[in-house]
Amino acid sequence: MARRASSKIRPLWIACIVGALVLAVIGGIVVQNQGGDAFRTVPELDIGEYLSNANSLRGNNYKVKGVISQSLLYSRETGRLYSVEVNGSGGDNVLPVLVPPELSYLNLQKGQHYTFLLEVGDAGILLARKMQKG
Q: 3-class SS at 36?
């Protein structure tokens, strides 16, 4: 008499499947937490260095997280100048950020939190290249 093949699910296979599911869930959580910062590969602006010698940083891109303090100036050609409150190593600081006309579709208001991708331009002016709310 011939033997039939066993169709039992082995405990080793169950453990492997459960382990793979746990790893997938943990990986999804890690990716989701890192995905919120669109500028995670850009270095943060050293505010102390910027305030002491902004010209040395000219042409470089940096990330800054801050709160819109107030609108300072508006020009149709160059954009709108805002003061942005940021936390630095020496406490709270206020930086001038120029938002060009290309980003005029954003409705910036006092008290809103933003992450800025900034370029240090001529004369040390901080020019917003991209912005993300939050």
A: coil
Distance CA(58)–CA(120), nearest Å, equals: 5
pLDDT one-digit tens code per residue, 94-125: 899 999 999 888 888 999 999 999 999 888 88
Cβ proximity of 65 and 115 under 8 Å: yes
pLDDT value, residue 101: 92
Residue 3 within any structural domain of the chain: no
Q: For residues 56 and 19, state if they share a domain.
A: no
Cβ-contact 61, 81 below 8 angstroms? no
Dihedral pair phi/psi, residue 110, rounded to 5°: -55, 135
* d(C-alpha 81, C-alpha 67), whole Å: 14
| Cβ pair 61, 111 in contact under 8 A | no
Does residue 88 form part of some domain? Answer: yes
Does a structural domain hold residue 20? Answer: yes
User: Are residues 25 and 88 located together in one domain of the fold?
Assistant: no
